[in-house]
Amino acid sequence: MTQPTLTEGQVSAIRQFCVQGGIHLEVSSGVPVVIPVRSGFPTCPECGRLPSSVMLEPGTLTGGRITYEGCGHVFKIPRGEQT
Questions:
Q1: Are 48 and 74 in contact (CB under 8 A)?
Q2: What are residue 36's phi and psi, to 5 degrees?
């Protein structure tokens, strides 16, 4: 099954949430990063649920994938996005 890809707008909204929350994702050590979620985070594009957290692999918003924990939906992050 292919993973759907987030749009530039969706990645931009996630990035804005991280910046406002003081979460820095500029450099990745290759280790997955779990971001706790509160209101204001973009809901899951697949089911509309607000997750309890999201996991970024490999810990950046430049390529890789994001998992919405709770519903379990996984999305690709376009490689062209910059943090």
A1: no
A2: -70, 145
Which stretches in the chain have pLDDT values below 70?
1, 26-28, 80-83
CB within 8 A of 2, min separation 6: which ones? none
**Phi and psi, residue 55, nearest 5°:** -115, 125
Residue type, 12: S
Dist. CA 75–CA 63, nearest whole Å? 10
Alpha helices (runs of H) in the chain, residue ranges in sequence order: 8-20
Distance CA 25, CA 18 (A): 8
* Single pTM value for the model: 0.85
